[in-house]
Amino acid sequence: MRYAYLGPAGTFTEAALLGVEGAREAERRPVSSVPVALAAVRAGEVDAAMVPIENSVEGGVTATLDAVATGSELRIVREALVPVSFVLVAAPGTTLADVRTVSTHSHAWAQVRGWMDGHLPGADYVPASSTAAAALSLLPGAAAEPGFEAAVCSPVVVEQHPELEVLAEDIGDNRAAVTRFVLVARPDAPLPPRTGADRTTLVIPLWEDRAGALMEILEQFATRGVNLSRIESRPTGNFLGEYFFSVDVDGHLHDARVADALMGLRRVCPSTRFLGSYPRADHKLATVARHHSDGAFREAAAWVAALQGRGAHRPGAAGAGPA
Amino acid sequence: MRYAYLGPAGTFTEAALLGVEGAREAERRPVSSVPVALAAVRAGEVDAAMVPIENSVEGGVTATLDAVATGSELRIVREALVPVSFVLVAAPGTTLADVRTVSTHSHAWAQVRGWMDGHLPGADYVPASSTAAAALSLLPGAAAEPGFEAAVCSPVVVEQHPELEVLAEDIGDNRAAVTRFVLVARPDAPLPPRTGADRTTLVIPLWEDRAGALMEILEQFATRGVNLSRIESRPTGNFLGEYFFSVDVDGHLHDARVADALMGLRRVCPSTRFLGSYPRADHKLATVARHHSDGAFREAAAWVAALQGRGAHRPGAAGAGPA
Amino acid sequence: MRYAYLGPAGTFTEAALLGVEGAREAERRPVSSVPVALAAVRAGEVDAAMVPIENSVEGGVTATLDAVATGSELRIVREALVPVSFVLVAAPGTTLADVRTVSTHSHAWAQVRGWMDGHLPGADYVPASSTAAAALSLLPGAAAEPGFEAAVCSPVVVEQHPELEVLAEDIGDNRAAVTRFVLVARPDAPLPPRTGADRTTLVIPLWEDRAGALMEILEQFATRGVNLSRIESRPTGNFLGEYFFSVDVDGHLHDARVADALMGLRRVCPSTRFLGSYPRADHKLATVARHHSDGAFREAAAWVAALQGRGAHRPGAAGAGPA
Amino acid sequence: MRYAYLGPAGTFTEAALLGVEGAREAERRPVSSVPVALAAVRAGEVDAAMVPIENSVEGGVTATLDAVATGSELRIVREALVPVSFVLVAAPGTTLADVRTVSTHSHAWAQVRGWMDGHLPGADYVPASSTAAAALSLLPGAAAEPGFEAAVCSPVVVEQHPELEVLAEDIGDNRAAVTRFVLVARPDAPLPPRTGADRTTLVIPLWEDRAGALMEILEQFATRGVNLSRIESRPTGNFLGEYFFSVDVDGHLHDARVADALMGLRRVCPSTRFLGSYPRADHKLATVARHHSDGAFREAAAWVAALQGRGAHRPGAAGAGPA
């Protein structure tokens, strides 16, 4: 297997990839951006790419949401949750008192502002293209003068580069912060089997009249008892006020209630895109009311088929009427 | 063919039955009540029964609504609309000035009150078990003294008994009044073929919390674009506030949107009863939005089947995503 | 006080009226029909009329539902529940074996059919304008030969006329049967005070497209947590498929959630008619979620008023935003 | 008046601010981030701050959405739309062939990727904290060696610094791109008067069970005919799957339908936050159905008040019932 991931080595994304069985032994290609990673999947250069999709502090990763929503189809085949923990690193011999300027990715900066205000209130900020890139440029022998004395990065970078000086650990403002990653493959990848604790990801364009149209979409889920665990709006980029929705629902394409909701969605919104069904990383089982169970769908289909003369009449299949 | 109908001969119900091709030559059995007519169908003594179900002035015929909702299953296979027109008849030689007391069925009486207030303001009313029965007891040679001088009945009675004196014609308060009849057979009767202008009749029990539960039922129709042309609540007879709904929807069991709505209903309300799909007497075609058409349901099912690996991938079957 | 009621004396309706404090001493005028009773109220000839509105077996009393829905406005100021119990009576000296023909009101006949099939299987039925009228014509010295040997009526008739022979008691098929009556006054009658266990009755015309329009009406209740305890459709009489709905909701005009729902209804359906708020006969308290309570409505109105600069800013009135 | 804006001078944000009457003569303070700008408003150091809220390509500006949603209350008092147009600039004497590395803000970079792929396919990218900052570091005499040969910025920068070499103009991939800015003040700022073409911005926390809760929120708008022109979900930052929604609706706090929807929202979601009503920059008038008009709300309130005995009975105020 060959994997791409949002690099460089040492990012939280690599940590997520290393959790996939066999990934440690597989080819792992760090790339510079989410679109590049997904382009490598589409071109067949790698089998799958690990990319971040959602962060509990910063929200959806828009580059990922947009890249999977357009272009040739892709399939999410796995998700991973990685706790977000930040360390402040510097070149060997540096102390906290030496730090005037700090660099990191802007998302990471947003998550350590509280610590910075408390411990380095006067520090300037220099944006970097990734947390790891900022840290690596502090290594002895790095190409150029970095223009900053410290960097905020993942502990993984320190594991790989123990020569870095760790000035402070666990400096994130929110200790429960977590990033969710997805492993994205081509649409001919095998559909992961149903486990009972599954998630299905969809892209649903929204057309004019927002309140009514969005309600019509949500009704497709609500009338089948399909719960939404994530909903995010994204601009299509065409003009202000034109959106698509990126949603996760509880359940699997092979759950009757999910399949039925997809049929309803497909009718009212023909360009709905299916991005995959896959096991939840937290193994949380879906709760399903009896009348939304596979059995209830099967029984209802058999009843209608019998009425239409397509199936065998079975005892109890006929409507009892009011008792 | 053998038919039962709500008698005696000369009622509007017989008029409705005579409109069925072949009925003039068939055995026609007048019976004393709707339950008796339907019992004859259930027992196999007749092949079908013509009974009134709805009147544009008086509303639903509760005896019919209740009799088809409970007991062994039945199927409506045809409907008929009969304009309601009333005449005032008397024994030969009677004049309007002779009339002190008038008899007819209470439903008919309600529909001629305006005329009576204008032309016979002091007349007393005597209830009768049917419009025809009242009229026939005025015929020369009738068994007993009737206790009234005039009767309100259908013009059909006069056609069959020209010796009756017609004191006034077309005395109904609402000239557009019409009664709808249904021809009821056993559930093994062939399902009438789809014409594009069809009606489907259902019985739907309603359980606790009315506003929410009724909305859940209506949503099953609304989300599939199935229009309701009639909805009536009836008590189950068990206790105050326990209802079932008798509804007509536009469309046929073989329309995908109707079949899909029935599956949804069956899940949320397992004792829903199907009472038949049959051509509308007014031949009014149903209007169906593109996304509720058979083609849209077929395409959506094929899309989901392809995603599930159950069908062939077809060009255009995949979700396009936001353009 | 002067009261009208659906007579003659001895009906269940008089029993309901006698339950009103002061009614035993008041003038009580039996009249021949519900429209006549309500006409007497409208004309100011009586102060109020007691009429049946709903029966647990037979359903809505259509004469009442229609008479209060049209014409000049009326107000329901009280309700009463009367258990329905039937006795079979005859002229003195008659025995069950003598009975060939039985008379009663058609609604009562429907409720004793099971007993009749078991005890008098061959008996003929003669309709009567009321249960009491049938019974009274069996009294010694009644004007004419009745044409039947027995009558089905309320036990009240026997109390008032002990000379009647009681052939059987408690012959109703459904022992839990109950009829609900309402006391109807003119719209200037004082609004009964709120008790916490109140009912509000409304008439709501329904316009074209039934599923959607009915849902829009129900939403007005559902979004304010107002429960429906009765909903009945009635034809307007104009043409098939044109309805109005007669509904009861839990709560009082002075409950904020009810008043707010009425405002919403009035906008989407301007000819909605208010028929009164009055205490429930069963004293069942309404269950109201915190966010539908009077306090929640008051707080929300104060918040908006403060935003608009119409009210005082109060501590905690401002939106806290996501915590 | 004193204004803060997302600086430095020369950004699209300053262009938006310069469109406010009087702003050219007012004190204009460029600040380094949206949170800093809003903190200056909250602290009373400036009267208002101009910040970007939405971009037709990149979507919501999360820093702004989050900063106005929490902390002490703020009010949006004006919006501005600025077409997004990009130029590629360099130090004097530079040519396109000299460019190896390009710097700009990451949002701007995302919007010129197509042009770069076509004209500078091998160029490296260096992130900058703003488009203007990147450009200004190319000016002769800038503090340090910039580490890149060209920058992507707004044409405003070139107006202010004509010595910059313009290598290419109008290089944005989407010529219709536009950014929406809002002018944010303290909550005691006067509410802008209603114009008929207004927008209202709200923050609505979403609690458990997404599909149902989101539908309950949307219903508050839909049942009053209030259209949503923008809806965005944002994480609260507490844990994955906990959101708030940032929405814009058509209409003004002084429109009855908007005020009524706010009351409904406040009840079902007490921590809803009102962020202001202000004229739309595009002057597009709201379309309002008759039954959602101020007149309809006024009439409905008067009707209920009259029923409650709080207002004068007026001709036509009473429900007409079914005609």
From TrEMBL, chains A, B, C, D:
Name of the featured protein: Prephenate dehydratase
Pathway assignment: Amino-acid biosynthesis; L-phenylalanine biosynthesis; phenylpyruvate from prephenate: step 1/1
Lineage of the species this protein comes from: Bacteria, Bacillati, Actinomycetota, Actinomycetes, Micrococcales
GO molecular function, one term: prephenate dehydratase activity
Prephenate dehydratase domain span: 2-186
Protein's UniProt keywords contain GTP-binding: no
Enzyme Commission (EC) number: 4.2.1.51
Species of the source: Kocuria oceani
Pfam families, A to Z: ACT, PDT
Reactions catalysed according to its record: prephenate + H(+) = 3-phenylpyruvate + CO2 + H2O
Domain of life: Bacteria
InterPro entries found in the cross-reference section: ACT-like_dom_sf, ACT_dom, Chor_mutase/pphenate_deHydtase, Preph_deHydtase, Preph_deHydtase_CS
PROSITE patterns on file: ACT, PREPHENATE_DEHYDR_2, PREPHENATE_DEHYDR_3
Keyword terms, alphabetized: Amino-acid biosynthesis, Aromatic amino acid biosynthesis, Lyase, Phenylalanine biosynthesis
Domain named ACT: residues: 202-279
